[in-house]
Structure formats: C-alpha cells, structure tokens
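Section 3.1: Structural characterization of target chains.
Under the original work plan, the team committed to producing a structural model for every single-chain target entering the pipeline before any wet-lab resources were allocated. The record below documents one such target. The sequence was received from the expression subgroup and is listed exactly as submitted; it comprises 989 residues.
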Amino acid sequence: MSNLNFPYSLKTSSHGRDFLLLFPTSGFQSKPYLPFSRGYRYSSGLIVRTQTLVYASSLSHGRARIKGPRVVQFVAKAQPVAEELVEEKLRDPQTSGDSIRQRFLDFYAARGHKVLPSASLVPDDPTVLLTIAGMLQFKPIFLGKVPREVPSAATSQKCIRTNDIENVGRTSRHQTFFEMLGNFSFGDYFKKEAIKWAWELSTSEYGLLADKLWISVYQDDDETFALWHDEIGVPKERIIRLGEDDNFWTSGATGPCGPCSEIYYDFHPERGTSNVDLGDDTRFIEFYNLVFMQYNKKDDGSLEPLKQKNIDTGLGLERMARILQKVPNNYETDLIFPIIEKAAELANVSYALADDSTKTKLKIIGDHMRAVVYLISDGVNPSNIGRGYVVRRLIRRVVRTGRLLGVKGDGMGDLQGAFLPILAKKVIEISTNIDADVKTRASRILEELKREELRFVSTLERGEKLLDQMLADALLNAQGTAPCLSGKDAFVLYDTYGFPVEITNEVAEERGISIDMNSFDIEMEKQRQLSQAAHDTVKLGVENGANLAEDIPDTEFLGYNTLRSTSVVEGLLVNGSPVAQVSKGSEVEILLNRTPFYAESGGQIGDNGFLYMMEAENEQQAIVEIKDVQKSMGNIFVHKGTITEGMIEVGREVEAAVDANLRQRAKVHHTATHLLQSALKRVIGQETSQAGSLVAFDRLRFDFNFHRPLQDKELVEIEGLINQWIGDAAILETKVMSLTDAKRDGAIAMFGEKYGEQVRVVEVPGVSMELCGGTHVSNTAEIRGFKIISEQGIASGVRRIEAVAGDAFIEYVLTRDNYMKQLCSTLKVKAEEVTGRVEGLLEELRLTRNEVSAARAKAAIYKASTLSSRTSTIGTSKNTRLLVESMDDVDADSLKNAAEYLVDLLKDPAAVVLGSCPGDGKVSLVVALTPGVVDLGIKAGDIIKPLAKSCGGGGGGRPNFAQAGGRKPENLLGALEEAREQLTKLLEK
C-alpha cells in the first residue's frame, strides 16, 4: 500500500453526504480507464469501502461516469489521505464465487471424480424436509441400499438449513441458503487421498498460507492425526483433538458412521497457539469437513469395520469466498452482496455507512432472498405446512425486515407495488453458475413472490397493530410475573394475519415477552390438515436393506414389451423381515429377478395382477394376488400381495401376469397427462410447470403452478385441444438417449424425479416430449376421450386438475347421462330445459326464504316489544335504561333486528344485551348501545367478548353494536347475568 498514489478523485453525493472516490495510478496503464470491483469513499477524514462498480473515463475533460444513472463532478486532485487508512483490494477474478466453485470441480475431475449436478432442494429422502447437505443425494449408496454408479464424485450442492435462522445476519457465517462443495468416494479412496487432496486444494489451488490453517481430528483417531502431521507436515500444535459431539459422524442410532477431520482458517495467527478455541468465530472459520465413513454402529453401540469405506466431504463455498475475497463475513462476498446492495438502494441507505442494526437487516434480506428464489424454482410454493411454510416464513421475514428499513411499496415510487421481485431479479441475474434452470423459471418465481408479498402486506399493518395491543396487554397483565403472550393470541396472528410465530417471537423478545408455545402447538394441531395423503412405503431396516442389496440384484423390468413372464422368487418378506416360505392367507412382499409389473414411480401407481407358482406337469400349486408394486433399495421391485392358494417359496419359479385391463387404464391416463401438460402450456402460458401428478386406473390428477383459477372457457379450450390430439391418432415415439441430448431437444422433466445419464423420452410428435419411465399407449386414438372432472387450488400458487380418459371417460359419461335422465324424470322436463327449471326453483326458494325471514323478524320484534317492560333504570340520575334478556330460540338475524328495535324504542341513553339458542348447540349474542352510553367510554365489543367466551365462542363489532356466537347454550343464562352485573357497575359510575 505504501506505493499507492491518489492523484484523481471523483466528488459525488448520496443521501445528503458528500464523498470523494479515490483512484490509485500505480500499477495501471496510462490510459485513464480504471475498473474497480470495490472503490473507496472519503468522508470527514474517514475512508470507507463502497460496493459501487466505478469507471473513471475522460478524466482530462473534467467529467467522470459512475455505472448507473448518476453523473458526478471531476476533482483534479484528491485531498491528502493517510496511507494507513487505505486498503488495496483489487479483486482477483480467480477469487470470485463462480471461479472458486469451478476450480473445485475441475480439481477433483482431474483426479478421476465424476462431476454431478446439484440435486433439488426437495429431497427424495422422506426423513428430511429439505436438502441440508451435499451427501444427501448419495445417502442410499452410503447406507448400502443402492449400488454405486461411479467410484467417486464431486458436486456443488444447493442447501437449505433454517435451524440457525436467528443467527442469520448476526454472525459472520450463518446462512439459510448456501452451496456445499463436496468430493465423495464410494469405496474408492480413503483417508490418505482425501487429506492429501484437501490440503493441496486449499494451499496450492486456492493459495491459502499453510501457517494459517488449523486441523481438528476425532479424539481417538490417531491414524488421521499421523496423516496430517507426518504426511502433510502440519505442526502438532495446530492439530486439535475434539470429542464425539464435534468430530464423529453417525447416520442414526445404528448404521454407517465414522470420525471427521476439519480444516480451519486462522484470521489472527498473531494470537499464538496456546489455549486455542477453534469455536472462536472472531479468529477461526471452519471451511472444509472430511468424514471418514469406516464403521457400522451395531445395536449394542459397538463399532465394526465396514466392508466398503467411504469419503464424504463438504467445503462451504461462501466461507471460502469470504477467505479469498478478504471480506469480514460471508454476506459481503460477491455471492450475496449484490443482493444486499440492491436492498440498500431500495431502502435508500448506504451499507458502508450503516449502523450494525441496519447491516444485520440487509444481511437477512440478502440471505433469505437467495433461499426463497431457489426454493420456488425447485417447486416449493408458500403455504402453511411443511416446505411451503419454510418459504412463507422466509418471505414474510424479508417483507417485515424491508419495512423496518423503510422500504415502501416497491421501493421505487410505486407504493402499491412489491419489492421482492426487484431483489429476486438480482438473485436470478447471478444464478447462472449455481442453477441455470432458475432463469428459465424466472417469470413464475417473480409472480409468486409478488403475489405472496402483496397478500402479506394487505394484512401486515392490521396484524402489527393487533400484536402491539397484545404485547401491551401481556405487559399489563404480568403483575410482577414474567410477561407472556398466550399461545392462542400467537395463533390468531399466525392463522388470521399471516404472522409466522417466529416473527411474533422476535418482536415479543424485543420487548422482553415470551410466548406460551405449548398452547400455540395445541392450536396448530387442531387446525392442521395434511395437504396430501401419505404414500404407502416399503419399510426395510438398514441392516436388512443392506443385506438384501448385497444378495439380490436389481429387478429386470420387462413390462414395456410384455405383460407376462417367467420369473424366479429371489426373496420373501413378511412384516419387513426375510422368510423362506409363506402360506395361504398371508400378506407378503415378493422380490423377483425379473417382472412385467410396473412399480409405482413418476406418479403412475403400481400394476395389479397375479403370480402363479407351478408344480411339475404344469399343475398349479400357489396363487398370489398382487395389489401393489413399489421400488426399494434403488431398483428392486417389491410385489405386495396376498397368497390366496398354496404356499410360495424362495428360489421357486413363478409365472407373473399383469392385469391387462388395469394396465391399459394406467397407460391411457399417463399419456393423457402428457397431453394435458402440453395443453396447459399452450392455453395459459409456457411458464406453468408440473408440481405433482397421480396416474391411477380410475382417473388422473395433475398439479401445476399457476396463480389463479382457470376460467371455464380455458378449461373448454384445454379439453378441446386434448380431444383433437386424441382424434389425430398420433403414433407415440419412445427412445433412450443421454440426459444432455434430451434437454437439448426440449424434453420436459417430470417434477420430483431423478434421472441418470441415460433417460427414456416419450414423444407425441408435434405435441409433447417428456422424460418419462412410465407406460404409455402406442397411439393417441387408444385414449378414446378426455374429460376434466374438477379444477381447484390446493395450495398458494398451486392448482389441481382431475380428469378421466379411456374406459374411465366412458364410465363417467354414462354415469352422468344416467343422473341427467333421473333429473329430467323428477323435474318432468327435457334435458335442455333442466337449467331453466332449476333456476326457477331456486328463485322460488329464495322468495320463500325471504318471506320466512321477514316473518321471523316480525315475530322477534313483537317478542322484543313484550320484553321492554323488563327494562331497569340505572345511573345517578336513573335515566339510563338497561335490558338484558334471553329470547329462547330466535335466530341470529332476528336477534339483531330485535336489538336494533329495542335501542330505538328505549331511547338514548340505553343498553341492550340479548341472547338466544337457535338450535344445534348454538348460541347467538347481541350487544347494542346508544350514543349516550358509548360516550361514557363503554364499548359493545368489550361487553360481548367475556359474554361470548363464557358461551364457548367469540365475536366483535363496532363500539355501538357487536355480535357473537358460541357452542355452550347451557352457559347462556349465567353469562347474561354476568353481563348485567358488568353493565350495571359501569353505568352506575
């Protein structure tokens, strides 16, 4: 730095402050064009970094241009600046996040690793909500459930973790979304190579100084300690032994496990080597974790060596970027900071000059925006359950944080607009090398974010006011005890106003108030509804699964070409345990060496049919009725059925026969699903995408991303297109090709499916091309007809169409025709006259109901007039009239009319409280007050709340009028008496 000179500077202003942008000349060409990834600002004698990309041009003409719309004044000479205040940091392109990622993958590719793409953030593993680690897609291989396809692999995996969400923005390293670079060995190499390459990558490829690297090893792992010290040359004082909690990985209570070793970067080596704590975030950051999977943990806790030893590693991309880019935290790397800059611009603040609180908020926004963009891209839409709740929670946290920073509307002048799409565009802009698919899904991502933000904002202000009141009440009611917000109140905020409980908790904590989470959880459980039925899964223990995977090869599937085959019974399972034979009447799971039965996958359910075990001379010995087929341990087909005759044994030959009629029904519905997706894209837009499907024998179900209900004319157009394609009698083309070629040709991948290097492509020429392993018709004419049964929303931004085709279509039409004939007979009209006749009957019913309602209202008013004589007078001048009475079985509307009649009759000042039990265990309540009573500070809502609570319900209204309902009619009279006493006390004041 001592050689840098600053003969040029640019004077500009931002947010009311003047700055000088200083430009060094040492080391540059004489041409006055100075590109910086980071410039520097000078203000009041203090140098601070700026993230603005600066270009100085035409300096001799006294003007300069900053990238963006601002034009600034050129200053011929900079003010004197102390050299020690200026830091030279011209970004090396080799330290960019994209470069670090590519260098990692190239490094391991050169050492024989197969570079594989990142898996989806929605994992196949049902035990995990989201993809939390790079090893997750390889877990079945590590557990011995599926054979390895390659000996070693390297990936850059998108990950989401929300367990440390409270630390995001507050520490230098916690994130919800991050990329994990990983190299994996499946029985190929082990400790020596993993350690050697990790060190070589860190010191030679990335250029980290060896004396700034520390190592941790498992406390009993002398072998690893020796490798680091003797082979690599790391001094003993920089190798720390840690316990089981820190440095021993397990997959569960039993199963594969092993010690870990981690590499740490030391930001302050000058602090020495004594009393070192690797957990000190101010000094160290762990950036590379090596897991040596070498043992199997048994039920008794003992460890036995694995036959195949594996390597599982993870290097945090953002952490390495922080180290190489020499920034104080992960957020200021080029992977996240562009988003923070955009957020600061919308909030009209300067990150460089911001206080710690503002910086924390900007970091939260930068982190969370990456998470929600990639989650939505991978098909996760905001909802109140599961993965959708994670997205909704993060989105709402960003919206609230943005508002706290002062972002109004879209931050660019449109107060009714949304600012999340603006930030998302920045995320998408820098997404190319993380996930190229994000850009193709951009329109759907932006639309979903806009819709969710505006939905939340519409209730946010009301919710914030209500939360303020609830917290104030909690403080008021504490009376010397620790203030606590009730779980019911927190749930109302969550359910009615869209406040994730975590946000409520954050706001409450700021005021020193806790939340009763036990009662909140009870309320959540009451209203929780599953969005879809759980799938029936084959439950095989890790040990049994591992043994079966070793002993039984993958099942050969013959079902594309035949519905019958001769097969050998490779295994039998009863209640998940292997057996040698099974007798009549038993439920059994059967593993065959080959099969014509389709196993459930890609949305298509498994085939039904029979297995026949034959004796000599073709005499039938046993029959098994197959009701379902599932895949387990990779590609082993599990035939689930019941033995209806005889006994079946392992090793015996059987004849497998698929139910041809049901298979045809499934084929018809599967091909129709492909046609439906193509029709949707043509009618409502190419941006719509599949979000799930079911191909059954009796119907098909197709879930897709779309922001509104489909119009009737759109549904008619979709049906028309599909039936036209069916009538075209197009011959389907099926071929196997590389995944790269298939995507290049425009084949659509099915939601949630994993694909190998070779894929099966099903094409309806000119209409549809999809990657699909399902069974299909050979000609669209086999579908015969297509009809949409229903279209509805199942989650925010997700719609569902159910439809029928083929035989199911014929059955549906015949059934509906039969219903119409019965209706015509009942109404005594022709089919074309049914609509008019029904409309006439509905109008008659409406008029009749109005007459009944009017009669009830008159009866209630008459009854109320007889009650007026029971009015009591209250107050110092005895001029306030109070009437509290039960009106037996009067309905809610009539009760309201009666109360309005009575307050008019009694004149001001007057208070009327009425209750009734209209039947079915219901209670109706009304409180009506005249202006004179309201002027005394008495509100109808305050009177009716405890009244309704006593009757097991709730309600509210205006200061002068409130209504409520309840479910405890037995408490009505007591509650009315309490209301009488309460009003009497208030009015006598």
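The radius of gyration is 36 Å.
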